[in-house]
UniProtKB/TrEMBL annotation:
GO terms for molecular function: electron transfer activity; heme binding; metal ion binding. This is Cytochrome B. GO terms for cellular component: plasma membrane. Residues 246-399 form the Lipid/polyisoprenoid-binding YceI-like domain. The keyword Amino-acid biosynthesis does not apply. The lineage of its organism: Bacteria, Pseudomonadati, Pseudomonadota, Alphaproteobacteria, Rhodobacterales.
Length: 402
């Protein structure tokens, strides 16, 4: 029989039950195994496969669980075999509703975290990797990841209690509770009043889970070494020299891109100053840019990027680019100088365009650096985990000083 009765579960409800169980347990197993693997060139292909499968199965579990819950809402729910055991019956219903919440919240939060942040290991389907109304935001990704991890703990507890309850019915009570879900056996009195308090309390539990997860600061990047995790507290910001040039920057961005596990990710260095002296008549000048590296942002690996392996912001909280400016044809210019980063000086050439309208100048430029020149990522000798080339993009608007 496809539908439920007051004493038995129908074929569709039983199929949904076991399919959701298989999907969620498979996704959990893949996720836990992926977390246990080291992050290096040897494991890159395995990690991509594991996490793509984990995410794909998680999305499938979400839709299957949603269909199961919608079906359950329009079906009669078989009565418990021992309605006179009020406390036991209430506990079973509470666990039941907590599981319903876990089946939706856990995969949904993981999906939102994936959609909010570009990265490797895509969902294996043709419908894209983003979600409507979910912005590309590190904050959203961290918040969703927090909900995902905390909801996993609720899932583990609810599944454990659910299994223990089933075993009790088989070993101690020796009744047909499990047989109703495995074979569709009809059993029980066929009448019972289900508590409205159980779903309400489960809703309160899930509201608390989501609230706590959103309030807890994001942890250090998973897989980072202890020394990297210890560098998460921002180091004191650099104190730039007073601007002595004839142009004052009013707004600007300093961004960079690098490949992580084969996928391009974007970062930014939001705190910096530029001391610019430029002569329009000759098209020459000088520039000194002082960058506060402790404010670096690079998605979910910001803390790792600040660690000793890469920017080492604890020891080197600032970087400096000093260059001479020369003009080419039209608006084309070049800044030729030295970038001091991690205590290492490297020659850098930055091509850029410059347009001046009255007392306002607009500049955009980009160049490519090699992380190895600065001693970054020594334990990543190839590009499987972290690319060698780092694209740097800068744009600013400046006004002439009186």
């Amino acid at each position: 029989m496809l539908s439920n009765t007051p004493t038995s579960y129908g074929t569709l409800a039983r199929a949904f039950h076991w399919l959701v169980a298989l999907l969620i347990l498979s996704a959990v197993a893949l996720g836990l195994y992926g977390e246990s693997l080291p992050r290096n060139a040897e494991t890159i292909d395995t990690l991509k496969t594991l996490y793509s499968a984990h995410k794909t199965i998680g999305v499938a579990a979400f839709f299957t669980a949603l269909a199961r819950i919608l079906w359950a809402l329009v079906q009669p729910r078989p009565a418990p075999l021992h309605p006179e055991r009020r406390l036991e019956t209430f506990g079973a219903e509470l666990v039941h509703w907590a599981l319903y919440g876990a089946m939706l919240v856990m995969p949904a939060s993981g999906w939102i975290s994936h959609a909010a942040q570009a990265g490797f290991a895509p969902i294996l389907w043709p419908f894209g990797q983003t979600l409507p109304f979910v912005p590309q935001s590190d904050a959203v990704a961290h918040a969703a990841e927090g909900v995902h991890k905390l909801s996993a703990l609720v899932l583990y507890a609810a599944v454990a209690l659910h299994i223990l309850g089933a075993l009790k019915h088989v070993v101690i009570d020796r009744d047909a509770t499990l047989a109703r879900m495995t074979r569709g056996t009809a059993a029980g009195p066929g009448r019972a009043e289900h508590s409205a308090l159980a779903p309400l309390l489960a809703l309160v539990v899930w509201a608390a889970v989501v609230s706590v997860a959103l309030l807890v600061p994001p942890p250090a990047e998973e897989g980072a070494a202890p020394a990297e995790a210890a560098a998460t507290a921002p180091a004191p910001a650099a104190t730039p020299a007073a601007a002595a040039g004839n142009w004052q920057v009013t707004q600007g961005t300093l961004g960079f891109t690098v490949k992580q596990m084969g996928a391009e990710v974007s970062g930014s260095l939001p705190t910096w100053t530029a001391d610019i002296a430029y002569d329009e008549a000759t098209g020459t000048g000088t520039v000194t840019v002082t960058i506060d590296t402790t404010t670096l942002a690079l998605g979910s690996v910001s803390d790792q990027a600040k660690g000793p392996e890469f920017f080492d912001t604890a020891a080197h909280p600032s970087a400096t680019f000093t260059a001479a400016i020369s003009r080419g044809a039209g608006t084309a210019h070049t800044a030729t100088g030295t970038l001091t980063l991690r205590g290492t000086e490297v020659p850098v050439v930055l091509p850029f365009t410059l347009t001046i309208a009255g007392d306002t100048a607009t500049m955009t430029g980009e160049t490519t650096l090699d992380r190895r020149a600065f001693g970054m990522g020594a334990t990543y000798p190839d590009e499987a985990m972290v690319g060698f080339n780092v694209g740097v993009q800068i744009a600013l608007t400046a006004t002439r000083k009186n």
